[in-house]
Design brief:
By secondary structure, the chain is mainly alpha-helical. It has a single domain, classed as MetI-like (MetI-like fold, Orthogonal Bundle). Helix content is 82%, strand content 0%. Helix 3 runs antiparallel to helix 4, helix 3 packs antiparallel against helix 8 and helix 8 packs parallel to helix 9. The two termini are 26 Å apart.
């Protein structure tokens, strides 16, 4: 309860400071929370954007596909490289170097190749989510105590039980951290891709509202995206907690 109390205090303080500061600036560009609330109601009643639910579904679908591709390819390639030490030592520096490149530089090429439709946003979300997952798998396998593997093999453990009962529980913390980071970056990639160039999705609505100086609607859309992101991250946190209990 103390944690929730102080979280509430911080949020109230932030919104209060925002309210005071925004009222002293240009109202066209800076909207206080009290002025954004009516815009939130207009969006909820589908008055500001009648097709708002459709855009939400598009964004959620793009995030789901992007993250599914990132987790399948990231886990698959990570385990292949991690369980074959030589391949891991060859490819890990390459993957780390590619991950260090600012990801937004790839988006123009993705947009040219996939067009303005959902495919380019899925590809961008996949690209951002893939690298932290595969690198987390490599780091997690490397931190497994080799003595555990030696003891399990001496007791006759076969490859799959060895992996499931020894390797995976030992690396689960690092693996889950990488998967959760990959989910967050997949969400960022999809929404940023929609803002940079899209005809549908929440990001396209944000770009549309800001381009027309509909600042209250812009702020309300940011609130909607924040709520969606908090819900996704909360679900991921619950899954992570259950996986940690299983590994413990």
């Amino acid at each position: 309860m103390k944690i929730f109390f102080w979280r509430g205090v911080i949020l109230v303080g932030l919104f209060g400071a925002w309210e005071i500061l925004a009222r002293q600036l240009n109202p066209v560009l800076y909207v206080p929370p009290s002025a954004a609330w009516p815009a939130v109601l207009r969006i909820a009643r589908l008055e500001a954007f009648p097709e708002f639910p459709t855009h939400v579904v598009v964004t959620l679908w793009e995030i789901l596909v992007a993250f599914a591709l990132a987790i399948v390819t990231g886990l698959g390639l990570g385990f292949v490289l991690g369980l074959r030490r030589f391949l891991g030592e060859v490819y890990e520096p390459i993957l780390s170097s590619l991950y260090a490149i600012p990801s937004v530089v790839w988006y123009p090429s993705l947009m040219l190749f996939f067009g303005l439709g959902p495919a380019s946003k899925m590809a961008f979300g996949f690209l951002l989510g893939f690298f932290p997952i595969v690198l987390a798998v490599l780091a997690g396998i490397r931190q497994v105590d080799p003595h555990l593997i030696t003891v399990a093999r001496s007791m006759g453990a076969r490859p799959f039980p060895l992996f499931w009962k020894v390797v995976l529980p030992a690396m689960i913390a690092t693996l889950l951290a990488g998967v959760r980071a990959g989910l967050a970056l997949s969400v960022v990639g999809v929404i940023v891709g929609e803002i940079l160039g899209s005809r549908e999705g929440l990001g396209s609505l944000v770009n549309y509202a800001y381009g027309l100086f509909r600042t209250p609607d812009y702020v309300a859309l940011v609130f909607a995206i924040a709520i969606m992101v908090f819900a996704i991250d909360g679900a991921a946190g619950m899954i992570e907690a259950r996986a940690r209990r299983w590994s413990g």
